[in-house]
Amino acid sequence: MNTNIRTKDIVLTALLIAIGIIIPVYFSFLRVTLPPAFTATIMAHVPIFIAMFISPWAALFTAIGTTLGFLFTTPLVVAIRAASHVVFALVGAWMIQKRYNLVIIGIVTAILHAVLESLVVYLFLVLGFTPAAEGTPMLVTAFYVTGLGTLIHDIIDYIIACGVGFALVQARAISPLPSIWITKK
Description:
Layout: H1 7-26, E1 31-34, E2 38-41, H2 46-54, H3 56-73, H4 76-83, H5 85-97, H6 102-126, H7 138-170
């Protein structure tokens, strides 16, 4: 992993963390909630995806920092779901460094994201920290509602982030992104 961290990247990471905290705090009108444990705030993952485009370090610190925004504004199960973003952010940043194409990166990170968040919800349900909806099996709540919901939410945010990422490349704020379809070796 590249440990040469540029000042510009540190500043961009700090800005992404700030935006990632502001989104769930001030944009709750963009939040979709399905009890007991699923929420989706549109654009909440965009700062993490953009951080992935910068570096693994930016992805790591942005995922940790944005978790704070959820810790302040949502139930604990949602904040722990947000903490799981560290994993898909690091995997995605590594794939970007290896120049995988953006579609493959999006698919891999979306599936990983959905599975991890589903597991968090399932553990909270099984351990009794979050009550299950009456008449709904835990597996349905965890893997269908949360998993499918996260998958859809991730795809929307990833598409937005790619658009913003291409604009940041044009502004010379970040390094060029991998191609959309073709993996360059």
